[in-house]
Each structure stands twice: as structure tokens, then as C-alpha cells.
Design goal:
The complex is a heterodimer of chains A (390) and B (150). Chain A has helices at residues 24-39, 63-71, 87-100, 127-130, 138-154, 158-173, 188-193, 221-226, 258-269, 286-295, 304-310, 326-330, 340-349, and strands at 6-13, 48-51, 77-80, 106-113, 196-198, 201-202, 212-220, 233-242, 278-280, 364-370, 380-388. Chain A is built from 13 helices and eleven strands. In chain A, α6 packs across α10 (286-295) and α6 (158-173) packs across α11 (304-310). Helices cover 34% and strands 17% of the residues of chain A. Chain B is mostly beta strands and 150 residues long. Chain B folds into two domains: 19-66, no CATH class; 68-143, OB fold (Dihydrolipoamide Acetyltransferase, E2P) (Beta Barrel). Chain B contains one helix and eight strands, in the order αββββββββ. Classes of the chains: A alpha/beta (390), B mainly beta (150).
Chain lengths: 390, 150
């Protein structure tokens, strides 16, 4: 079978909140209930499950088994996709691969995290030795270095980053599931006036931590049809790259693995960037959106500012961008946040975008970014093209 | 407006607990010597230290002493300090591209934020840690710290 013989049968999402007074298991239960209600599947139909990691449960090495027990699931396949912010979207193709291998047939994908009430994350990597002694402040610090280098090589019109920030914020205002704290308008001037964190990264370049959950059911096309589902979403192209240039000591930090990931995804789907109906890139920092536009072929390397200047990214515009607000304006629900823009893409393709519904529902491009390496671009890049079943 | 950047030399830094394969690096810093892993098969230096050559995947690696000369590849003035760096803002985090072909993340001392630029030549400044090892910082090749022997 091909990737496109598998379908997304349904989606579910909680509202994104801060200090939710909930826990990951509570949110997972809510998501599973929503998915079963929407699709008509019974719990006994679910024989596979893939989770994203969780900042709240990161120290739980038996994460998938524990979740299965809390949810009462008997599974022939259980796993966690360990690709940071790429995990949620990457789980779709892992589910398809598991189904294709005959391991299971209907897979529950759940992404849940409550880092603002329970944060258990710890690193076992290069940080203790090579980053923390220099006060490099995690992702903002690394993106400060990346942005300054980009500016040196190509010039960087910060007003174009402001434009992207404002567009996403306007979309969050239309999204009832976005974090309420962020559902107030901002202007480009607000962006430029927001305080510096790690120059040139400002507060309004960054995500705000929050709690939330989302999920999907991935199954075989014939099973979905037998279930009586007439509409579903099909993954038609996918590409993934981890540790770009990992065998060389010197890399250009302005280039990401999305070039390779995008080429593979577009080739599989038989589409070009200009065919894409809406764009749902992973957004941990505003500049990451622009770099992904370049790497995915919407414009050339270093031409992102000109492309942003000439493009209307509103939900009714040329290339609708993160129509739910993205993580930056909806709130980043920990590792579940990697599912936020994915769910929005699925919602749009189902035609359920409500006040922010895009016109072109022929396809959507979702991406992921995961891991901040040492003196490189980000660690993992994925591109996933979705199309509605005709 | 000129703003003084913190050299971070008063930040309470803990001694490093190295991985097994990075011990030779830290041992050499006791004598303020900079050593880097070198892969003789590919001719490539690498940093940070790894258990294998990132070029070949094999464990055949040498430690070679290098002078630490390089240039600023990128820099960021940190306004929100991390961990023990809180209260020492603003300070400069830099990526230094060493002449031997590796990138090193560090702090720049003896240089204010408005004086640093990409391409600026820098050299090591060894900052002592409590266990006798030293932390590799960088200083401008020319400037106030130019005469300081560290």
C-alpha cells in the first residue's frame, strides 16, 4: 500500500489554556472520547496508538504503556514518536507504516501536554558541557544566533517578521481554541516594541507555553469506508530529515532539512508549492516560518522577506498561513503543540474552519521542527501534504 | 547609546561533568591548552567531542592541539539570562568559527555589544573553574583584553 491508502478519519482538540488544573491523562481521555464520538469507532476498534512525548510526562519511560492502561486500550502496536515538535505530524506516517506492515489497522494518535502545571523535562545531551556554561538560553538563544547570521548573509527586514506575527495573531482571534490571553490584536508596532529576549529575538517572536491536547485517528481507507465515513483526509506526500549535514563540522545555519523534506513530499503528492491551498508550518519563532518558505521552495534561499512582503497570508489571502494562529498566537501546548497546526490543516480540509475557513481546500502543507542542536539549524524537519478525499 | 556588556566572569559557574570521550578536552584546559578531536581519515576537526568521527562513524580519532584563532560567525546579546546568568544581563553569546573548521558556542569578553561584528577576529580567553579546569571564552584579537595573558 502507499501512504495515500491511509486516511485521517477524524480529529479532536481541546482549548489551549495556561495553568489548566488538568493533567495529561485527563486531556487524553477527553481527546479519545471526542475521536470515538466523531468517527463512530468503538474503543475495541483501536488496535494501535502513537503518542507524542510530553514535557509533563517526559520522565515516564513507560509512557505509552501507562497511557494505554489509563485509557483501557488493548493494543497490537504502541509507540511514542520521539521527534520533538515534529512528533505529532510524523506520527501520521508512522501509523501508516505500522498499518502497512500489518501490525495494526486503526491507530489512535494522541498529543497531550500540560507543561504549565507539571514540567519534568530534562536534557541528557550536550547542554551541560557546551551550552549552559555560556548562558545560552535554549531555543531563543539559538534562534538569536541563527537570525543574526541570516541578517548578515541576506539582510533581514524585521517588519516582514512583524507582518507574519500580526497575521497569525489575527487568526488566533478567530480561533475559539486559542489561548484567551493571546486573543487580542497586535500591531506591527507592538512587535517592534516588544522586549528583547536574545537579540534579535523579541518576545513576540516566541511561543508562550500552555497546556492542551489534540489527536487523530489514522486507519486504512477501506476500514474508514466500511465504517460509513464519507469524508476523510489523506496524507499524499511526506518528507523527513534529521540532523542535516550531521557528518560535517561546518554548516550554513540559515538552511534547514525542509529543502529535502519538502522535495520528497511534493514529489510524492505530485504537487508544487504554488498548488498548496493553505500553509501550516511549525512556528516556534517567527523567522522559522520565513526560512521554511525558502527551504520548501515558495521562494529562493534568502528571498523570504521579499516573498513575505508580496504575499497575503490571511485566511482569505494568497497563501493562508496558520489559520488558527499558529503556536505563537494560539499558545504552545508543550509537545502537543506540534499537533496544533496539523489539526488546523485537517479542520480546514474538512471545511470546518468556520469564520476563518480558507477557500482552497484542495491541499494543505503541514511542517514540523524538532530539536535545537549545537551551532546548527534545527534538528528535525518534516513536511506533510494533506488532501481531502474526493 | 553605548551599553556595557557583562563579561560573565563573575557568573557562578559549576565545574563540568564531562562525558567519557570529552575528558581529554577538559584535562588539557588545566594547562590552558585547546585540543580538538581530529579524524585522520577525513581530515576534519570536530567540536563538541563525540564518541566517533562524525565523518566516518568510526572511533579512530586523534586529539590535536589548536591555537583557537577564529572569527565571529554570529552573536546574540542575551537580555533574559539563563540559570546562574540571571542578573548578569546583557551578555554576549557568540558562535566562533575556528580557523581549523569547527564552530564553538561561547561568550565574548572585553567587547561591548555595539563593537562586535560578524567576521571579527577573536582568540581564546581561559576562564578558571573551581576544579582547576578552564572554560574556553573568547576575546577580540585586538582591544582592551588584547594585552591580558589568561
Amino acid at each position: 500500500m502507499a501512504l495515500r491508502d491511509h486516511v485521517i478519519a477524524g480529529y479532536a482538540e481541546t482549548k489551549i489554556v495556561q495553568k489548566s488544573e488538568r493533567d495529561v491523562y485527563s486531556l487524553m481521555g477527553e481527546i479519545m472520547d471526542g475521536l470515538l464520538a466523531r468517527t463512530g469507532f468503538e474503543k475495541r476498534d483501536i488496535d494501535g496508538m502513537i503518542l507524542t512525548p510530553s514535557l509533563s510526562a517526559a520522565s515516564t519511560t513507560f509512557w505509552a504503556q501507562s497511557a494505554a492502561e489509563f485509557l483501557g486500550l488493548e493494543l497490537k502496536f504502541a509507540d511514542t514518536t520521539d521527534l520533538g515538535g515534529c512528533s505529532a505530524a510524523a506520527s501520521i506516517v508512522r501509523a501508516a507504516a505500522a498499518i502497512d506492515a500489518g501490525l495494526c489497522s486503526t491507530v489512535l494518535l494522541i498529543n497531550a501536554d500540560t507543561p504549565t502545571v507539571d514540567y519534568r523535562f530534562s536534557n541528557y545531551s550536550f547542554h551541560d558541557e557546551w551550552a549552559d556554561p555560556y548562558g545560552l538560553m535554549g531555543p531563543p538563544g539559538a534562534f538569536g544566533l541563527l537570525s543574526r547570521r541570516y541578517e548578515h548573509q541576506f539582510g533581514l527586514d524585521y517588519d516582514m517578521l512583524a507582518k507574519l506575527a500580526v497575521t497569525q495573531r489575527d487568526h488566533a482571534i478567530l480561533n475559539d481554541n486559542a489561548c484567551e490571553k493571546l486573543r487580542r490584536p497586535i500591531t506591527r508596532e507592538d512587535y517592534h516594541a516588544s522586549r528583547m529576549i536574545a537579540e534579535p529575538i523579541r518576545l513576540l517572536d516566541c511561543v508562550m507555553p500552555a497546556d492542551g491536547a489534540n489527536g487523530l485517528i489514522v486507519t486504512r481507507r477501506d476500514i474508514a469506508k466500511a465504517q460509513g465515513l464519507s469524508r476523510f483526509i489523506v496524507p499524499t506526500g511526506y518528507g523527513e530529515l534529521t540532523n542535516l549535514g550531521g557528518g560535517t563540522s561546518l554548516v550554513d545555519v540559515t538552511q534547514s532539512g525542509h529543502r529535502v523534506a519538502g522535495e520528497r513530499a511534493f514529489a510524492a503528492a505530485g504537487l508544487r508549492p504554488q498548488d498548496i491551498g493553505s500553509f501550516h508550518p511549525y512556528d516556534d519563532f517567527i523567522i522559522a516560518i520565513m526560512i521554511q518558505l525558502e527551504m520548501l521552495g515558495f521562494c529562493g534561499h534568502g528571498e523570504g522577506c521579499a516573498y513575505v512582503r508580496d504575499t497575503d497570508f490571511t485566511y482569505s489571502g494568497d497563501l493562508p498561513l496558520n489559520t488558527g494562529g499558529g503556536q505563537i498566537s494560539a499558545g504552545q501546548a508543550g509537545f502537543a503543540g506540534g499537533g496544533t497546526n496539523l489539526i488546523e490543516a485537517v479542520r480546514q480540509l474538512f471545511g470546518e474552519g468556520g469564520a476563518r475557513q480558507v477557500r482552497n481546500t484542495s491541499s494543505a502543507l503541514v511542517t514540523g521542527i524538532g530539536w535545537i542542536p549545537y551551532a546548527r539549524n534545527w534538528g528535525s524537519s518534516i513536511a506533510l501534504i494533506l488532501e481531502p478525499d474526493a | 547609546m553605548t551599553e556595557t556588556t557583562n563579561d560573565t566572569l563573575l557568573v557562578p559557574r559549576s565545574p563540568i561533568r564531562p562525558y567519557h570521550f570529552s575528558r581529554p578536552y577538559w584535562d588539557a584546559t588545566r594547562e590552558k591548552r585547546l585540543v580538538m578531536q581530529y579524524c585522520p581519515q577525513s581530515g576534519q576537526y570536530q567540536h563538541f567531542p563525540r564518541p566517533v568521527s562524525i565523518a566516518t562513524g568510526r572511533t579512530a580519532l586523534e586529539w590535536r592541539e589548536v591555537d583557537g584563532a577564529g572569527e565571529i560567525y554570529s552573536f546574540s546579546t542575551t537580555r533574559r539570562g539563563f540559570g546562574p546568568f540571571q542578573g548578569f544581563e546583557p551578555y554576549l553569546v557568540v558562535t566562533v568559527r575556528l580557523d581549523v573548521g569547527v564552530d564553538v558556542i561561547s561568550n565574548l569578553v572585553g567587547c561591548d555589544a555595539d563593537a562586535v561584528s560578524i567576521g571579527m577576529r577573536v582568540r581564546p580567553y581561559w576562564h578558571p573553574l573551581d576544579d582547576g579546569t578552564h572554560l574556553l571564552l573568547f576575546q577580540p584579537d585586538e582591544g582592551p583584553f588584547g594585552a591580558v595573558q589568561s
